[in-house]
Design a protein that fits this description.
141 residues, single chain, alpha+beta
Length: 141
Amino acid sequence: MLHQKQAQETGTTTPRGVPLVNEKVKQHYLKSDNGGEIILTNIEAIPGKRVVEHFGLVSGSTIRAKHVGRDLMASLKNLVGGELKGYTQLLSESRDQASRRMIRQATDLGANAVINVRFSTSSVAQGAAELYAYGTAVRVE
């Protein structure tokens, strides 16, 4: 508790009062489609950075349908058990595409970071699912 109070007094806490213990954390940037760099994180603050501008919610999504060949292989795999590699690859590609769309929206707004990134999936039709990525676009220094 003492550490949290000291952190609040020095301004080194997240908006919810969680202390930023190590402000010298190495930052990992992703390249956006337009050549810029952006930070993506699932936490509400970036250690060692300060939010100077808030752009609001950004999102990206993709809807993918199952592939007949993958369905056949998945049915066979269900009999013997194990990873459904075709679906693992499909979901990985979907997360990547949804993330790229979210990043494009954020950089178009002028953001250099997206915080509180989350992923959600939902079934939208028989054999089709949406993967939705969303977060808060900000400019940090």
